[in-house]
Each structure stands twice: as C-alpha cells, then as structure tokens.
Amino acid sequence: MHVFWARGYDGTSLCDLMDAMEISKSSLYETFGSKHELFLESLDHYSDNVIGLLAVKLAAAESPRAAIAASLRLVLDEEPHADKPQGCFLGRCAVDIGGRDLAAATRIASGVEQMIEAFHDTVARAQALGEIPADRDARALARYLVSSLNGLRVMAEAKADRDALEDVVRLTLAALD
User: Which of 56, 128, 145, 165 is the most buried (most CB within 10 A)?
Assistant: First the structure.
C-alpha cells in the first residue's frame, strides 16, 4: 500500500512491489493475481485499517466534538516519515486513477463514504449531547468535515505554514457552531 501511496499506480513497477514485499514475481502473481488486484487490495486495506481506526477513535471519544477537533488537528502535528507517505491514500488514488478505473473508483468511493459515515455518527452523537446544534444537517456536516480534512492534508503536503492550517481547522470547527 505504501508503495502505491508514494508513487501512484502508474509510477509503481512490479519490481517496486516485489522489493517492498520481499517476494518473487511468481509469488506476487500467485498471491495477488496481478498488480491491479494488489492495488485493489491495498485500497481495501486502507479503508479497513486506516479509516476503520479513525471510526473507532471517533466512536470511543467521550466528547464527540473534541474528537472531531483532534482528528483535524492531527494533520497539523503529523511529521513526515520516509516510510509513510503524506496525504490521504484514497485522495491520491482518486486523482491518480479513479477516473479511468471503475473497480478502483468504486473502492475509493466506498472508503470515502465510510469516512463520511464515521463523521456522521460522531456529529449525531455530538448533537445528542448538545455539543453541536441539533438543527444542523449531520450528513452535510460530515461531508464538509471529510472535505476539510482532505484539503488540510493536501495543504500540509504542499508545505502550507502552520498558521494557514490552523486557520482552516478553526473555520472548519466554527461550521459546527
């Protein structure tokens, strides 16, 4: 997944994948069938694990609004790591290949919807607790939060200064008032 994330689908060769997984070409084909199938499994893995972990953290938070704020602020504090690309894997893939690969586009859309659902559930809990006004459209707010979170990731990757990122977080949280 990290190889596709860092290099994109087209920029990733079979050799890159074999090196990263420390397997032979025959093992790659035997295990995954093809580069494309491995890519699709990488999208599923990201949704199940990365987005799944976000959903668990949001659901477990005592204060749903504070959990939303923390998920946005996390982008501000992420340090670049050589072994983990920045940004959102689904966002990168949507731009890279989503428009020309129906199977990938379907998985990307599913992952984004999974993220929206996690934020929707969190906004709804915050509304029930009085942390967010109950008259606000929870689904629209969830979509806005996902859009803002991904925009923050793009800005962070583009090396926006911290003040600019904090402005986005502040205004995004103000939309919950």
Answer: 145
